[in-house]
Amino acid sequence: MVRILVVPCFGNSSFCRSAFCPSPTHAGGLFAIDKKWFEKLGYYDPGLQIWGGEQYELSFKIWQCGGGILFVPCSHVGHVYRHHMPYNFGKLSGKPVISTNLLRVIKTWMDDYGKYYFIREPNALYRQPGDISKQLALRDQLECKSFQWFMDNVAYDVFNDFPLPPPNDVWGEAKNHASDKCIDTMGKGSSGVIGATPCHGYGGNQLVKLNTKGQMTQGEWCLTPSSGWGGRIHSGYCPKGKVDGPFSYNRETKQIRVASSDSCLTADKEKDSSLLILRKCDSANAYQKWEWTEKYS
């Protein structure tokens, strides 16, 4: 096996100030490529809509089909953002455009690794990528390598910081029937206190995942308990290199537990309150019982 030395420029600025640095991926709109090579690769997948996913599609295609990607530190590209978007998605407005684009890339290039996307985005399991037969035929025609080859030889160090996620134990809308509320990050994102609000059935801030190693997440955010009874649940960045956490779900009692403190997620009895708090586990407490409903889109 011959691995390609991929040197991260961040943290290695002295090395990368002038040297070309191989990179597993690139920004979708900022690159230079030989026109004939680009043509041979089929340009971008014409089935990709608007934007999103193209950076992965072309990156995987380049590496797996015999090419490579280099950062060129002495070459700079200016990217000026407008204060508004001068176009809209037209008939695709409100559609899962980026997710559908990613599915095209996953099902064309990522082989068995595609299953990890559906752990991260389980609601996309039944979403259709459209016709990818021409992309698969191109991959065969160019005799492209497997995604396992890409992981072994190009992105071999990614698992040091981003280990593969374990399966979800439960996911979806976590509802407490006594209060008629669902766990909700309420759009807080990083360093926010999450709560329980009336269930709306649209997923989004109320689509929560709990994996088999105890990590609970909403979107890209990890949910972390304060210590002891009376504590709150906070959302924030997931610790790099970790996929485990303190939570577990008991299917018999329907409680979400934090084992280290023998505490359970408890909704507030008050109708207008969004408080979600940790209380001593009590299997008879109706406000500690949560039922999960998977939400596909």
Structure overview:
There is one protein chain. The protein contains eight helices and 15 strands. A hairpin with a 4-residue loop joins strand 11 (247-250) and strand 12. The protein has helices at 13-16, 35-40, 54-64, 97-109, 114-120, 133-141, 147-153, 158-161; strands at residues 21-22, 70-71, 168-176, 181-184, 192-193, 195-198, 207-211, 216-218, 221-225, 233-237, 247-250, 255-258, 263-267, 276-280, 291-293. The radius of gyration is 23 Å and the shape is elongated. It has two domains: 13-161, Spore Coat Polysaccharide Biosynthesis Protein SpsA, Chain A; 168-293, Trefoil (Acidic Fibroblast Growth Factor, subunit A) (Trefoil). Strands 3, 4, 5, 6, 7, 8, 9, 10 and 15 form a nine-stranded antiparallel β-sheet that branches. Strands 11-12-13-14 form a four-stranded antiparallel β-sheet, with no helix packed on it. The longest helix is centred in the middle third of the chain and has 13 residues, at 97-109. Helices cover 21% and strands 21% of the residues. Helix 3 (54-64) runs parallel beside helix 4. By secondary structure, the protein is an alpha+beta fold.
